[in-house]
Amino acid sequence: MADRGEIARRVFATCRLVGIETVAVYSDVDTDAPHVNEADYAVHLEGSTIATTYLEQHALIAAAKRAGANAVHPGNGVLAEDPEFAAAVTDAGMIWVGPPAATLRTLHRKSETKKLVSEAKVPVLPTFTDPETVVGFPVLIKPDAGIGGAGMRVVRDASTLAEAVASARREVDGDVFCEPYLPNVRHVEVPILADAMGAVVPFGERECSVQRRYQKIVEETPSPAVDAALREDLCRAAIVAVRALGFVGAGAVEFLLDADGDFWFLELTPTLQTDHAVTECTSGYDLVRLQLLVAEGGSLPMPGPPPIRGHAIEVRICAEDPAYAWLPSSGTLHRFAVPDVAGSFRPLPQPGLRLDSGVADGSVTGAHHDPTLAKLVAWAPSRQEAARMLASALARAQLHGVVTNRDLLVRTLRHHSFRSGDIDTGFLDRHPEVFAPLLSSVDAVRLSCLASALAGAADRRAGAPVLSTLPSGWRNVPSGSQTAVYDGPTGPVEVGYRMNRHDELAGWWVRPVDPEELDLAGLGQAPVDEHPPIVVVSASRDRVVLNVQGIRLAVLVHRVGDVSYVDSPEGSVTLREISRFPLPAPEAAESSLIAPLPGAVRRVLVVPGQRVRAGELLLTLEAMKLEHPVHAPSAGVVSSLPVHPGAEVDTGELLAILDPE
């Protein structure tokens, strides 16, 4: 298996089912990763970066030979679309689980692919390989060879086209082309399997319109915009495109679809798509098994498209912060738990939840890999049931240790426009309200803070060497209050509560605190406007039950060091307890630009001594397969530039010093 994470686990699950032994490859950071532990054999890859490990083709082929493998599955990343890797595998005497190298070479040039498909009478948007020949605006610039959305940008007038094309070429280090940009269209794809005997079987269609940075985060089948007649037209066009390109294996033919039912071919993705799980749920077929069958030279066992059973929706749970330009999040995943999951990595026998995950409790997310942690799928008799089931499971999941896009996914699934099927590729741009956190009401945040303080007190009392059964801060004559100070979602807050002689909550409050005055004597004094009374039903180190005006509410608290991860039916919040006497921290110069995340410096566009404008791009960081720009916060002069292209940086590391003018 020449890949890692969730896709490796997915392929291994089917291999175990059909009696095929498996070999995993792993880098240093993945020594104890789930995909390594689940393989029959594992081979270590020397190197410290993804380029020297999982993308080093010679090392991967050497690892396969060393383990005695007779086939290589490339996963669904960059290598799965690389014709040179496919050729190297077959030249080494092993089976390539994917389309032939010759087909991949054709698909590697998107403009050439579109030309061949157009000649087969499949609708295709006009393609302009020379910016001088562009007719009409806006246009979308796309890399001729590339995946993942890199280099794509919209240009709305001719005055900015030349610079945008040059910028896109630098970003992808290759050729680009332009095609008309169609706003308010859907991204629909037809998953297909084709064998060497000429059989091509489409599996309905998938709706993939909810995207960020041209990458899908919500997928479903069937599409709410496609009826039986349109489905037949899409599948017929997909079959024609597959045969025109000589494609064999598993893939997906991607289309743009407008409100009038007109569609245009985009590309043929020659991999087992990451959203294949929804198709498995509604078709009942194990697509990995069929992919392996075709790779061995077998014929597809079904005569035509299988019937669609119910509705399936998938979301990608990613380690990233949607509210901050999708900034990737790295670190230790202290807890990853999704309730009511019925199965993983293969078709479900009946409607329910399926979780395909590449991580587990204790997994470490790094800056060099895709931010996707897992794919959660709901399969139900109807679209409304699937959306409701999926949103509920996500909202109740415990995702602790890294920032994720969970709240955005829940709000999207519960949004009235999504529920009605009114979605397209601009959904997130039109609905900024889905970026709000689930735990947004003031009262819900206050209750979470109180629960964290009570759980912290219970934890300390449980570990006390003497009198551990007494309540925290107990006195014969009650005086003062129990307090804790947290760095919460809106800044530092003080949590305080007073207990009476019967160990009952006599009063409580949560109030903002000036971070520069945390050590003042005023802390711990109850304010005049205490919050409405509640009853503490029970409080332990990991679970607090509160009675709020007659309604009982259970709050789960997971403490890791000084951080509390608080989960309730209202949502989740992370609270870091602040010491009353913090140690002084070194201060960076006011003009310092520091790395917002760990990653590799990809491009440096300035030199020391150069004057820059406010907002000018200084350099870019590459993390989790995405490029993140670092702009000048104000006009000034670059006085220091300690990094260079290829340099690895950690969060908080100095990137540049900009002396403001």
UniProtKB/TrEMBL annotation:
<feature type="domain" description="Biotin carboxylation">
    <location>
        <begin position="1"/>
        <end position="433"/>
    </location>
</feature>
<dbReference type="InterPro" id="IPR000089">
    <property type="entry name" value="Biotin_lipoyl"/>
</dbReference>
<dbReference type="InterPro" id="IPR005481">
    <property type="entry name" value="BC-like_N"/>
</dbReference>
<feature type="domain" description="Lipoyl-binding">
    <location>
        <begin position="578"/>
        <end position="659"/>
    </location>
</feature>
<dbReference type="InterPro" id="IPR011054">
    <property type="entry name" value="Rudment_hybrid_motif"/>
</dbReference>
<keyword id="KW-0436">Ligase</keyword>
<dbReference type="InterPro" id="IPR011761">
    <property type="entry name" value="ATP-grasp"/>
</dbReference>
<keyword id="KW-0067">ATP-binding</keyword>
<protein>
    <submittedName>
        <fullName>Propionyl-CoA carboxylase alpha chain</fullName>
    </submittedName>
</protein>
<dbReference type="InterPro" id="IPR011764">
    <property type="entry name" value="Biotin_carboxylation_dom"/>
</dbReference>
<dbReference type="Pfam" id="PF02786">
    <property type="entry name" value="CPSase_L_D2"/>
</dbReference>
<dbReference type="GO" id="GO:0005524">
    <property type="term" value="F:ATP binding"/>
</dbReference>
<dbReference type="Pfam" id="PF02785">
    <property type="entry name" value="Biotin_carb_C"/>
</dbReference>
<dbReference type="InterPro" id="IPR016185">
    <property type="entry name" value="PreATP-grasp_dom_sf"/>
</dbReference>
<keyword id="KW-0547">Nucleotide-binding</keyword>
<dbReference type="Pfam" id="PF00364">
    <property type="entry name" value="Biotin_lipoyl"/>
</dbReference>
<dbReference type="GO" id="GO:0004075">
    <property type="term" value="F:biotin carboxylase activity"/>
</dbReference>
<dbReference type="Pfam" id="PF00289">
    <property type="entry name" value="Biotin_carb_N"/>
</dbReference>
<keyword id="KW-0092">Biotin</keyword>
<feature type="domain" description="ATP-grasp">
    <location>
        <begin position="109"/>
        <end position="296"/>
    </location>
</feature>
<dbReference type="InterPro" id="IPR005479">
    <property type="entry name" value="CPAse_ATP-bd"/>
</dbReference>
<dbReference type="InterPro" id="IPR001882">
    <property type="entry name" value="Biotin_BS"/>
</dbReference>
<dbReference type="InterPro" id="IPR011053">
    <property type="entry name" value="Single_hybrid_motif"/>
</dbReference>
<dbReference type="InterPro" id="IPR050856">
    <property type="entry name" value="Biotin_carboxylase_complex"/>
</dbReference>
<dbReference type="InterPro" id="IPR005482">
    <property type="entry name" value="Biotin_COase_C"/>
</dbReference>
<dbReference type="GO" id="GO:0046872">
    <property type="term" value="F:metal ion binding"/>
</dbReference>
